[in-house]
Design brief:
- This protein is an all-alpha fold.
- The protein has a domain at 5-78.
- It is built from five helices and no strands.
- It is elongated, with a radius of gyration of 32 Å.
Length: 135
């Protein structure tokens, strides 16, 4: 799933103008984003053909915050170049926590005896009230 130069020219007005000495063209960046979208790979898993993964991620993050990617994908669908449905799922270890007993961790031993042995000892007698007769 890659955009050709002709397809890119149809959506080029949605993208910010490149300024300065830029080694990564907008077309190559869009093709890298489509590669990640199609294959579900990590950013570090991008083929070297697309360029430095960190550069691609940084520009994608900047465009996402500025709303550029929303405009680009809307235009891609409007021009019927691509048909996409974007969904987002995020799981993080801070969200899904497991109780320590569920991880197989050893349980803590019984409570430590206190400094006063009489307090830590089991009770010497039990109160067991009984009714001996009717009141």
């Amino acid at each position: 799933m890659e955009l050709t130069e002709a397809q890119y020219q149809r959506i080029a007005d949605c993208l910010p103008r490149q300024r300065g000495n830029v080694s990564l063209s907008n077309l190559r960046l869009l093709n890298a984003l489509l590669y990640v979208l199609e294959n579900g790979c990590k950013w570090r898993g991008l083929p070297p053909y697309f360029g430095n993964w960190h550069t691609i991620y940084t520009r994608m993050n900047r465009w996402s915050k500025a709303g550029v990617l929303d405009r680009v994908f809307a235009r891609l669908q409007q021009e019927q170049i691509l048909s996409l449905r974007l969904e987002q799922v995020c799981l993080d270890s801070t969200v899904v926590k497991v109780h320590p007993d569920g991880t197989g961790a050893l349980k803590k031993p019984a409570r430590k005896p206190s400094a006063a042995p009489a307090e830590a000892a089991p009770p010497r007698f039990i109160w067991l009230p009984r009714m001996l007769g009717a009141p």
